[in-house]
Amino acid sequence: MIISASVFIVVAFLLCVAAVLAVFGITHVAMSDPAAIEHDGLHRGLAAPTWSLPDSSGRIVRSPPPSKPFQLIVFTDHSLKSFPSVIDGLKVLARETADLEIIVLLRGDNNAAVGVLGLLGLGDFPVVTGKPSLYGRYNVRVSPFVIFIDSAARVRASSLVNYDWQIMKLWRLANIPLQPDPASGARRFPRRRQTARTA
Q1: For residue 15, what pLDDT is reported?
Q2: Domain boundaries, position 137
């Protein structure tokens, strides 16, 4: 009797563990699906988080940018070395664009990242240590991810990137003016048609 009760408890425990692992497995597959990743980031025109944090040299970096019309936030770490085309795109953008501040935002403390980014030729970019909660405010789960924002803290373009041409395409999109929000404008009512009065 005691043996059968023990067997029952062990089997029930193993079934519970299997159920929990199955739920986590399904969630992981669903969250890493390309269709789910398409919804990462912030949509064009939305307000981006505002913050000020020290970079790796101790200088305070602010978002939105106080002195440039645009800012490119690169969500990555030392793993950026696996994306040489993205590195090339960032270098070209930095060299050819005076209206843009490029910063690297880490998910957390990562001593290796600053050194690796320097070796990759990105040592001039400010490297800011963020937190997972800040990544969450930007709705970013995967990297390398980029978000272009303007000086009014509005998102101009955002996407996961693997190639330099994607960065250039997003930069062109960022330069397209935002359409005014129809809901925020003054409501216009149609004029009343005037009818002729008869005496």
Answers
A1: 62
A2: 41-174
